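Researcher: Re-running this chain for the archive, since the previous output was lost when a drive failed. Same request as before.
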Amino acid sequence: MLERSTAHLAVIATAAAAVGFSVAPGAAAPHAQIGQWGVELGSRDLSVKPGDDFYRYADGHWLDTRDIPPDRSRWGAFDELQERSLQQLRGILEALPEDATPGSNIRKLREFYRAYLDTDAVERAGLTPARAGLEAIAAARTHEDIGRLMERAELRLTAPVEFRTAPDEKDPDRYMVTITQSGLGLPDRDYYLKDEPVYRELRARYAAHIERLLKLAAEDDAAQAARSIVELETQIATAHWPRAKRRERDLTYNPHTREELTTFAPGFPWPALLSGAELEAQPRFIVRESDAVQALGVMFRKVPVERWRTYLAYHYLEGNADVLPKAFDDEVFDFYGRTLHGQQQQRARWKRAVRAVDQGLGEAAGELYVQRYFPPASKQKMLELVENLRAAYRRRIEHLPWMSAATRKVALVKLAAFHPKIGYPDKWRDYSALEVRPGDAFGNAARAEAFDWQRQLKRLGGPTDRGEWGMTPQTINAYYNPTFNEVVFPAAILQPPFFDPDADAAVNYGGVGGVIGHEMGHGFDDQGAKSDARGVLREWWQRQDEQAFHQRVDRLAAQYDGYEALPGLHINGRLTLGENIGDLGGVSVANEAYHLSLHGAPAPVLDGLTGEQRFFLSWAQVWREKQRDEDLRSQVTSNPHSPAKYRVNGVVRNIDAWYAAFNARPGDKLYLPPQERVRIW
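Model: Regenerated structure tokens:
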């Protein structure tokens, strides 16, 4: 399997045919779900030169004629599929039988969904379901009391530090507990620390929102409490690492024993924190942002207990607002939905009920979803497509001019060890220990949170479950997990415009092929490349190769630093670097895989478009998106993904095949001289 040969290329062509791709010239399959062969040609704006703005050339008419739904902050291909997934799950949940066996997943799904929808019951209950939590917060008298409260899973609190469990990055066969910075109500530290008028205004509106929410809970001096909370969170933000620094995996692996925590960050009452999280017996922890956690500990001890009580009370109400009376729910939406993301109206209750089910009983719902919407044959087709991409990656790694033989050997071993997970897990999660009560939306949410934390606690000390999934099958997304060296593609994303077995080969490679290549590319991005074939975080690069790699990715980061998403707001090329490497590598490799699938035959010309042109149009179609300015600001500030426009324009201008396909020339706005184009994988 590791040897490249003519026979292997024949296998590639066979696999391509098996997933519905043409491997010889001829007419495209006539039954593609989008257009005749997979791309909506009417979405283009032919008045725009591809070399000036390929995103607008490919999607301009769509952008001009689509409106963002009022209950959305953005709208694009991902959102359309999310809406379809919500509708499909709604149909499943509303058809569940009344006489389902008590304690069964079917019964739990029905009761969880219906309880969330029963807003009359939520209104009648008022603040009663939250009283126990509010009273516990009000009764706190010491910093130890605060520490125990803020790590209790069922309270769903925001706190300065957060415990998580995950496979150990240096020993992927066992789980670790991480301690990470947290505690902010705004999307990122920059919202507190930047002095531009837009951020000052958002902070003022945040304080006004906190005041209104606390007044609903009869806080005596809500205005003063709101000022206190914003000041406190500003102190927390000052201690936080920037998001770009938090990506550095070698900087965020700082092991400490339980006993060492008390001397490492003595400001925190560690026995109380560990007790609240039920981690008293855990012997070892990984601190991610080491000096930030130390600074937060100093701050924690200096801040009076009464200020922490107010802070926790607000975040308790905010974190549970969707299962509290409408006044609380509306207030939280008004700030977090409308003010921060530009969303004009709250989503329908049934949509949020489906999302709540996905969070609480996601795999139970997913099992029903894949039975109806993802046949086993689709899983096999996608596995075959992954092998096509693996073969293309292998071919490119073998011919990299900047990589030495020693590093290349380890990279190829890692590539061969990539484990694909397609559609859904082989073993479904056991929800038998989760209690779901009819008419108790608040309690069901709290118990689901506590159930999931107990599930995580039980696996500590045992071997890692490499069959576990980090997304539900109905999620429109995909991911790479470096500690398991796996690429994961939920069922719901494997449909048009990403994948259509009846579409043209170029369309499927430009769509889902680029996405698969992107996720596989995370194994070789600036952070994923720090793990080996087993997922162990270690140095395996020769020094000269590492330097050559960083010369290339530094140039890519600089390119993205130059893109202005909003006036005065530039993309952070370091924060988005891993995703940008994934996009560039994914599209480059998928393009090569497309040509391999043709097995030497010329690509057909369809509607006057070459195979290369259809390939790049498909990539652009996947990323077409309209976005509200408020949401765009939040994304650029806090999200490692570049805005959609630059996931197209920022990528294609570095790929030689795109220049040839669309005759991009010097003088075009996207044109880069060959020596300035970034080529990594």
